[in-house]
Structures are given as structure tokens and as C-alpha cells.
Amino acid sequence: MVENDPFAGLAEWAAKTERKVHRRRLLRRLPAFLGVAVVLGLLAFATPAVWRALTTDYEQPHSTVTLPATTDPFAGTPAAAYPKGAAGITMPAATAVAGFTVSHVDAALRKVRQALIAARLDPRMLTGHDPSGLITLLAANQREKVRREFRDRTFLSFATWIDPAVRLDPHEQPRVSGRVTYRSVTVDGLRTLRVITNFVWVYAFDRADRADRPLAAAHEEIHWEFPSTANLQAGDHGMWLGDVQGYTAWVDCAAADRGLLAPTPPGPAPTDDEDLLRADHTLDIDGNCRTTSNLPRHGTHRTG
User: Where are the membrane-spanning stretches (predicted)?
Assistant: First the structure.
């Protein structure tokens, strides 16, 4: 007689209870500045999943006090301390760098801030799925390539579309944390101002949809490129969306495959890696979302 293995199925159970992380893939384009090929990439993402509210009973020697469940979906996570919405996007002071004046740098920082708001916070993008607010901020010669990213649903690395199957919490703004740096670089002989943004965006969802998992997050680093206008074609003037690397966390893997953001579906109580909600978390992670072929969704590839 063969006894049942008490540990059978343990690995499968553990996989089901992991927060889902989706590491999306690096996509590169090669726009030309007067015949100079400048690599401007778009990396896609990865994905772990969400969090749940807890009701805790404290037992004392002669009485029991039951604390009500918190109504703050961010409570107990790093995002609880983050600013709300655009208040979390703070820009450094502008100073002159090689090839660019203070006014050039200031204008670039302002435009990058506009782009971050348009990509991650504007309701027209989030729930209206209208990317025009972001695309019109880019150099004319890059706009069609970015439109194609939205048509192909490969934009989750730099913009957010909320899955229509779920609803954002109407009482909460996304929580935002990150940093911005900039420097002058030379790309194939062309002087370029590079603004580097690294932000985590944490979205709260209606508990009626996902009562035990009301959060999902995106974390990315983006290089925003401003080539010197000297000898540039008119269509190359302005801001270019460059290399992007990042992941989405605490998410619905099936939605992420469609370029949409939604919290992890209801299921067994998941394990949470709350450090994924920190802007200083490494972007080099392994995803644990799986495709229909059951292969891990992680790694990078490049296209020209």
C-alpha cells in the first residue's frame, strides 16, 4: 500500500500564492538624426501582484478590542508614505550642462514632467486609453513609432492603461515615488541632453472588484533624450522617448499580456514582496507571470 505524500502539490500551491511579477521586454528603435542612428529603446515589463487589508484582534487580560479594518488601501505598504499623484513628481533644479543652457534644461525638465503625468496619471490615458496627450509631447519623427507601441500593446513599460474589467478606487489617487537626474551625453557624435526618470506608480482599485488585493504597481526607468538642435531636421527637434527598463508588480498576468494593468485576481492568500513598491528596488528581476505555453515571462530582446 502506497501512502499519500503529504507534500504532494506543495510546489504548485506555492506558485499560486506568489504575487505576480511581469518583466516586460526591451524594444529598441533606431531613429535617425540627420543620418546619425541613435538608439532609442522601449523596454517592456515584468509582474508580481497585490496586497490585502487586515483586521487584527488584540486580546488583553480582561477584555478584547477589535480594531476595524483600515479603509486606506495603501496602509502597511511603502506606498502609504508616498505623495499623491503629480505631487510625487519633483524635478531637480536646472543648471547648465555641456551644450545646454539653464533655460534649455529647465524646459526639458518641465516637458518630461508633463510626459510622466500624461503617461501614468492622466485619466485620458488610464481609463480613456487615449495616448495622444503623451504622443504630442514627442518629437514629430517619433510619434508614429510610439503610436505603433500602443496599437501593438507593448507600451506597459512607459504608460498605464487600466483594464476595463476593474475600477480604480474613486477615493484614492495613485501614489508616486521616484527621482530625476540629467546629464549631457554624446550619442554618435550628437550632443544630447538626457533626463533619466525612475519612478514607481502604485494604483488602488475598488474593493468591490478585488476585495483582498486592491493594489497594482508599475516601476520603470526612462531615458528622455533632447538632441541639440544644431543642424537637426525639423521633425527631429524636441523630446525623444529613449531606453526604458522596468516591471509591473502585484498584477493580473492575463491583463498584463494585453498591455493592461489590473490587480492580482482573487485566489489563495498570496505572499507579498513589498520592496517591489520601492523606487530604489532593482529593475533587474525575474518575472513569475506565465504565458499559455507555461513558459516564464522574463528576459529581454532587441528589435531594430
Answer: 30-51
Question: Strand 64-66 and strand 57-59: pairing?
Answer: antiparallel
Q: 66 in a domain, yes or no?
A: no
The CB density around residue 274, as the number of other CB atoms within 10 Å, is 15
Q: What is the pTM of this model?
A: 0.76
Taking the C-alpha atoms of residue 21 and residue 124, their distance in angstroms, rounded to an integer, is 26
- Asked whether residue 178 is domain-assigned, the answer is yes
Q: Report the number of distinct structural domains present in the chain.
A: 1
pLDDT tens across 2-61, in order? 444 444 443 443 444 345 555 544 434 334 333 333 333 333 333 333 333 333 333 444
Amino acid letter, 202: V
In a domain, 239, yes or no: yes
Q: Are 29 and 43 in contact (CB under 8 A)?
A: no
**Domain extent for 227:** 18-53+71-277
CA 143 and chain centroid, separation: 20
